[in-house]
Recover the amino acids of this structure.
């Protein structure tokens, strides 16, 4: 007797919950060979709005944790991802149509990337910050601080690695993220949200939308409560218009990148979403 | 007493069928049919599903602002906080001169002089674009004080210049069935609202529905408040959860509607506490329009008691005006 297949419903990830799109829309996700994989939620502008609200609410808690603790939380994501390697290998292989070996390599690289960025959490401030020279009996110190809510358009031609490469650095400094997954290959990203939900990442720190970046990105770029936007995967969109929208509210903007090296690991991806605060402090008065 | 007050009082006694004693009031209030709780909640939920878009939404948002009693009722209130509250009430959105001002500011009695001074020429009848000063009185929020203290509290606020008085009923007496006492207290406070020139501050009667436990009690308290001469019936102090809910407000509106049919008089309703989003506020507008009619959507007959609602409405207004989502950085921190 054949067993009835139990297809999975892929939903959004907003504020630590898995809602359907407010619009009720879904779209078909096909494998690289064209066969039906699943229906994914097609997020609307209102889902983006809700995601930004959830991200804003989470800024205080996440940016308020110690750098060491944030590093531990990000490392925990890598640990859980390692435990579900087989699932992600098969999903990546289905989505991208690559061999199991290539999919395994991609998942391993994604896990390693979490570890790499986790390590930076309590170290980037030492590198990006500075004790400034002064001519008096006090200290003058510049420290990087998280900018707040970061919107990310994930790379569109990579299902997992590109997504992780864009997401992880934005979290390191204590920002919260609203990220739009690859439109054609969103399933590994949503599965990653299950990892995030069961790891120690507080709800609202990462919010994942699936659907059309062309539809959602303008709302995120123009949203006055978004502090920065990473357009790494927006190369096929009208990204100049998005930059102009973002400039209206003085957002930090990262430009699109193409090819397999898009969002390559770099300290600059962490510092791009920080603001430098400079303070002075007295030396001992004795 | 003025002639109208005497007429009103006599009509109430005629409705009750005798003097306002515990026994007569009990006979009348307990003779009112019970509330169908499931039907009430379903009706309220149904009214909450209306989709209000574009021009209707723009109208609703402006109207909501014009119906708000901008409120601060904290132990930590200072004259400075009241002044900034007044500034917010007069000019809710400084970046947009087309934004209407709120109906009133609502403060504790001792803050009334500061509110009056800060309002200056902006103070006036909200029906004519002014901003009124409302004061809570009668040992707000608990109402646990002697009648003499409550009356002094009220007279003090009126003398300081309050245009409207928000009084709390004695819930303990109400729940103990001493309706006559609650009735007499409202009548006495109404009398204390009179100014020396013969005019009278508007009286809002707070039922504190969160402490009345049942819908039947809310309906009885609404009748009691109206019979005793309240110009407004108000859901809650905002200090008790649950505060205003849509079913409770719908129930009070139905009483107001029935009173109108019975006597031709129009009594106002003020939901207060817990209304924080424009979406919720629009549901209340729909409920008012569907229950008592659109003519009630005016500051003399309907108010929102709210402190954080204004900001959400302003964010929605900005979204409609600019076409993109706004954020809390673009409104004041209250």
């Amino acid at each position: 007797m054949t067993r009835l297949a139990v297809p999975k419903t892929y939903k959004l990830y907003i504020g630590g919950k898995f809602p359907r799109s407010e619009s009720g829309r879904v779209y078909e996700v096909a494998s690289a060979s064209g066969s039906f994989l699943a229906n994914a939620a097609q997020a609307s502008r209102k889902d983006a709005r809700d995601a930004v609200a959830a991200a804003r609410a989470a800024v205080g808690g996440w940016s308020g944790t110690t750098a060491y603790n944030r590093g531990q939380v990000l490392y925990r994501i890598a640990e859980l991802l390692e435990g579900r390697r087989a699932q992600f290998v098969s999903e990546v292989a289905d989505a991208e149509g690559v061999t199991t070996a290539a999919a395994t390599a991609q998942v391993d690289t994604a896990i390693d990337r979490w570890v790499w960025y986790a390590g930076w959490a309590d170290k980037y401030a030492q590198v990006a910050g500075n004790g400034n020279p002064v001519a008096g009996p006090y200290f003058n110190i510049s420290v990087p601080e998280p900018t707040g809510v970061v919107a990310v358009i994930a790379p569109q031609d990579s299902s997992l690695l590109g997504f992780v490469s864009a997401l992880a650095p934005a979290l390191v400094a204590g920002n919260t993220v609203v990220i739009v997954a690859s439109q054609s290959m969103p399933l590994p990203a949503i599965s990653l949200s299950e990892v995030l939900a069961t790891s120690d990442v507080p709800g609202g720190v990462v919010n994942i939308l699936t659907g059309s970046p062309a539809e959602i990105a303008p709302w995120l770029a123009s949203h006055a409560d978004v502090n920065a936007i990473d357009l790494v995967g927006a190369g096929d969109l009208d990204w100049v218009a998005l930059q102009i929208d973002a400039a209206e509210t003085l957002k930090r903007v990262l430009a699109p990148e193409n090819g397999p090296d898009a969002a390559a690991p770099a300290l600059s991806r962490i510092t791009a979403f920080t603001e430098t605060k400079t303070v002075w402090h007295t030396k001992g008065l004795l | 007493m003025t002639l109208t007050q005497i007429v009103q009082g006599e009509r109430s006694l005629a409705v009750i069928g005798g003097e306002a004693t515990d026994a007569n009031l009990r006979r009348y209030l307990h003779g009112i049919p019970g509330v169908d709780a499931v039907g009430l909640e379903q009706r309220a939920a149904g009214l909450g599903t209306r989709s209000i878009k574009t021009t209707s939404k723009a109208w609703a948002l402006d109207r909501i602002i014009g119906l708000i009693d901008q409120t601060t009722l904290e132990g930590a209130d200072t004259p400075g906080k009241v002044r900034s509250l007044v500034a917010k009430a007069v000019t809710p959105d400084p970046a947009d001169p087309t934004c209407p001002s709120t109906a009133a500011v609502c403060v504790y009695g001792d803050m009334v002089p500061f509110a009056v001074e800060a309002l200056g020429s902006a103070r006036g009848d909200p029906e004519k674009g002014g901003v009124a000063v409302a004061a809570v009185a009668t040992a707000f929020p608990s109402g646990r004080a002697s009648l003499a203290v409550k009356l002094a509290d009220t007279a003090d606020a009126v003398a300081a210049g309050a245009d409207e008085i928000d009084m709390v009923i004695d819930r303990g007496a109400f729940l103990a069935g001493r309706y006559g006492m609650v009735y007499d207290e409202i009548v006495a406070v109404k009398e204390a609202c009179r100014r020396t020139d013969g005019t009278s501050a508007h009286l809002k009667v707070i039922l504190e529905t969160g402490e009345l436990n049942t819908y039947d009690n809310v309906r009885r308290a609404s009748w009691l408040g109206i019979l005793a001469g309240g110009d407004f019936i108000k859901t809650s102090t905002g200090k008790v959860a649950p505060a205003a809910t849509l079913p409770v407000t719908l129930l009070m509106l139905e009483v107001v509607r029935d009173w109108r049919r019975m006597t031709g008089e129009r009594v106002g309703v003020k939901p207060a506490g817990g209304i924080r989003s424009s979406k919720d506020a629009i549901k209340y507008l729909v409920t008012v329009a569907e229950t008592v009619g659109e003519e009630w959507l005016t500051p003399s007959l309907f108010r929102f008691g709210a402190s954080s609602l204004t900001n959400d409405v302003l964010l929605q207004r900005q979204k409609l005006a600019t076409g993109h989502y706004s954020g809390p950085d673009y409104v004041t921190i209250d």
